[in-house]
Amino acid sequence: MVSLRCIVVGIVLCAAIAVGVPYGSLLIRGTRLGLISSTPAAFFLLFVLLAVAQPLLRRVRPRWVLRQAEIITVFVMMMVATAIPTRGVMAMLLPMMGGAHYYDSTENRWEAVVHPHLPDWLVVKDPEAVRHFFEGGRLIWDGWQFPLLTWAVFFLGLYLAQLSALVILRRQWVDRERLAYPLAQIPLALVEGSRRGFFTNPVAWIGMLIPVAFSLFTGLSHYVPAIPSFSLQSTVPFLGGTLRLSANFLMIGFAYLIGSSVSLSLWAFYLIHVVQDRLLDVVGLGSSQQVLGPWSTPGVGQQMIGALSVMVCYQLWSARDHLRQVARKAFTGDLEVDDSGEILSYRVALAGLCVGLGVMSVWLWATGLPVIVVPLFIAVSMILFIGLARVVAETGMPAVVPAMIPAGFVLSAVGGANLGPTGLVAAAYSLPWAGDFLVFMSAPLANGLRLATATSAGRRLGSALVLALAIGLTVSCGFLLYLAHRHGGVNLHPQYFKQFAAMPADLIARQLATPSEISISGWAWTSAGAIVMGLLFLARERLGWWPLHPVGFPVSMGWVMDVVWFSVFLAWAAKMIVLRSGGPGLYARSRPLFLGLALGQIVAGGLWLMVDCFTGTVGNRIPMLY
Asked: Rounded to two decimals, what is the model's pTM?
């Protein structure tokens, strides 16, 4: 159930995340608890709530102890809030809103080339407001107010579309296909373990202590250089290049919880992808493609888009019976279809999807994207949001990124010259919401809807999510504006306030100077990715001996796999040894060890961030992913 007290606790913790995550990432530059889609800040605060706050309350105020459903509600709110303050929205959006004017120079000539095409409601144009944001000074609210309000409308539509689509798909993914949702296993184990199991299981504590011990040396070495730190990374020669070997406890823990065929496919397809890249370099195709902007690798990027497109279409086809039921319930109110357990009724979810997509479409068109290109841009964006959320639900990847983003794909598919200057503006200013993808909202929403099945919250959880989104957006926006004006944005993390801030204007200027053309090879790569993905699904359905799961194919192309593939391999190898030596029983007994590994990495990072915030130490980062 969703009670008033759990809403209050959720609001307080969401506000703490909206302040603490940017403070730790941008000013302290310590452990980045909001950098990846697994939302480590939410996991850390859940651990503190269950390991510290709940036991204290049982002693002093037993009636204040939160029940299981209330804890899950609070955690879902925190997951949503964690996806907003830094890489998810605010630390990308605010610098990009002022970067085109602040980083204008006589060399890049953005004032003449870029500025005339920027709408007043899209960016901050007041020179004093921009200067104070980047250099410190008084907040000139009049310069920020209108652009922030218009961006708020867009994000309302974006989140509404994602939430509605995932509500429609939840029953298919959770009840019919029974996806693993590895990221949801830790909170479920912790909540159950608050009375029995996890917190009293020595195997779980051993698992937690392993990453805590490694992180202890890493953290202390920053304070006392004489103390050694241990690196779990190396490289080996491979086909004329190098292959990165990296052991990440977070990834090892989550990968142990997924099916063996899925984990096998992740590392096997990655090695196949590396071989493909090496061969392309040998024949001279690796560097001959046109530049399409940040986070977009020609060739392999289009291949990944094609594969994800087939994956999403296949999943929708597999869910056709369920989608018919959704349509009957939405349009006719069919009493045989029960949607009472969903956080939105199917009628509201379908309407929300249409309204959200409509808001996004109108925004892109108003920004300058040609109306004929808008459906393509929206389709690619939703394929990535829904497709990558599906990947997270199946694989437990703490982060998964595409090798090409919507802006890059559209520039390749349509050509920069055909978009025109205002269309380039629309594509470039999609980077705050469909750029980096290390954090994207559909991943925590999908895991949150899975966790909602463990509660009887129903519609009330939807209200809690709306509150979490509102708190996350408003508090993180206000605090980031405060940080920038108090310390000067250029004195905060340079990646956000220097590199990312200039990206949209730089992309526009480069495309105006040398516009990309319609890429026939790009469409060929897209078709090749789609065909291979289709064949993989066909093999999985028709060939009983086929060992590889199709999901590994598109995932292998994102750069995150460079970092985590070996951790997935280690988890797969450990699971194979356990299953062959002790069977399912030994595997069940070993699960707490690996849950502890994943949670221990997060807890260690959170504890060191607290120490660093207290001491004011800068740059002591415990890696969550890399």
From this structure: 0.95
